[in-house]
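In line with agreed milestones, the collection of sequences with tokenised folds has grown. A representative record is reproduced below.
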Amino acid sequence: MPLTQFLTGMGIGTILGWISWLFVIFKIDPETSGIVGIIFFYASLFIAAAGTASLLGFWSRAYFFKNKVLFSHLAIALRQGIWFAIVMVAALLLQAADLFRFWNMIVMALLFGAMEMFFLSREKYIAE
């Protein structure tokens, strides 16, 4: 699949994610819809945030690291976008349960930072 086709599909999916999230915000009442409305809220927010962060990460990597092949940026940007969306949705879930604390986010950031360092070091090891 060509890179432009993938990025176009990802952009369309991200836009649809934001549209569905806005639909959930304005049209679904969480008190009457129950758990289904809450799942739709978090799922659509996750899709929208992961797509947005991945696209922004790819474009920034392509801009700052011009000497690399563009496809090499794609996997890293997608993974980091998913990490960002997981942290964001987890923070909102903790806030909804009144369990959000500053140290929770520090622990989560350290955990995801360690996992990202593992993946980055593994990719460098495989490339050599």
User: Anything to note?
Assistant: Residues 3-127 form one domain.
